[in-house]
């Protein structure tokens, strides 16, 4: 403390300061304390912001880990799907070979039958009743061989005049009528064609030639080799995808850790500044107290400012260790009363990034329903007016209170659990409304259950209120 005294010559004691000097010194100390207090007022906001930063970095680390795990899971599932698909295709190659051989033999026999039918020309000696004139008429209509028609049928004459006539159907859907060819000549014509088809099928090859079977076998073996190579490549592709996912996770964690180190270093410097200011404030308060004890009261105007200046420092949130879990208790924060374990409706711990549970919407909706429908008004039951009005007002008050507590705790900046004991109080109010509905029904059979429910409601309400008071 700076003494506003002067030392007399000759070793005499210093002269006491004047009242004006005492007040000036006292005012200087008070203003210094007040200035430091204004600077220290920002420490709480700084600690809360730093805690939000740590929570945000923890969320970023969790997201990086979750993204890596999700990618690894996708890689594993994709590998299993492709392995099953390749195994199924490899197992089906033998059946595919047999199918291709059967198909190739079918095509070969069909081509052989068609070539044989094209080579079987229609002559006057083949069909009884068909002379050279009809052969020429058939040739003019494009029917020269057994391959040029497929069947015969009866239909109306061309132009719709006359009765039914015999039509000869061409391979591509056209049909022609040849004058002079009716039922007696059409039947032998079809018999001749059926005989030609039977001879062609009998002469058609019954198995594939060796060169075609060898060609199909080469195609199947090439497909097998390709599938086996693709199956052998799957583990390398999966390993590469896993390495890429791990690399991305490592880069993300390194980036987050680097940013955390920089932010932590800046926070430590800022915290050291606050600590130095707090020590300086304590020293100034001690100096102010010593000045007050030495010189007494400095006047009515400075008394109130002096009292405010000597108040203890406000408590600030303790800094959280970066590696500690978000819900862990801080050093010196007590034994953990009012933690989420005390209340089944609570989620997380105050000051963390964990929000109030969405399960609280269930009681909110239930009490909102009671606000609209009331209690004890089902069927033909009509409770008293005071019960109808009182139950709705009670349900409305509970709904408003739950929303008042729950909505701010869902916001990112004010996230936190519901106060301890809120779940017990909510259950108590629900039982109270149920008991009121039982009493309002007027049924004597439920009187005992109504009194038991009411007593349980009162007990739970007292318990929840006590826990809310402690929290």
Walk me through the structure:
A hairpin with a 5-residue loop joins strand 2 (164-169) and strand 3. The chain has a three-stranded antiparallel sheet, with helices on one face. The protein is built from eleven helices and three strands. The chain is mainly alpha-helical and 471 residues long. The model is unreliable at 1-9 and 325-353 (pLDDT under 50). Among the domains are: 117-209, no CATH class; 340-470.
Compact overview of the structure:
The protein has helices at about 20-40, 40-90, 95-120, 130-140, 185-205, 210-295, 300-310, 360-375, 385-405, 420-440, 445-470; strands spanning about 150-155, 165-170, 175.
Helix and strand arrangement:
Elements: H1 19-40, H2 42-91, H3 93-119, H4 132-140, E1 151-156, E2 164-169, E3 175-176, H5 183-203, H6 210-295, H7 300-309, H8 361-373, H9 385-406, H10 422-441, H11 447-470
Antiparallel strand pairs: 1-2, 2-3
Helix pairs in contact: 1-6, 1-7, 2-6, 3-5, 3-6, 8-9, 9-10, 10-11
List keywords for this structure.
three-stranded antiparallel sheet, 471 residues, single chain, mainly alpha
Write out the strand line-up for the largest beta sheet, numbering strands in chain order: 1-2-3
How big a fraction of the residues is strand? Answer: under 5%
Q: Helical amount among residues, as a percent range?
A: 55-70%
- Give the N-terminus to C-terminus distance in angstroms: 44 Å
Count of DSSP H/I helices = 11
Low-confidence stretches: 1-9, 325-353
**Total number of beta strands:** 3
Radius of gyration over C-alpha positions, nearest whole angstrom: 50 Å
Largest sheet: 3 strands, antiparallel
Mean pLDDT: 81
SS-derived structural category: mainly alpha
| Overall 3D form | elongated
Helix and strand sequence: HHHHEEEHHHHHHH
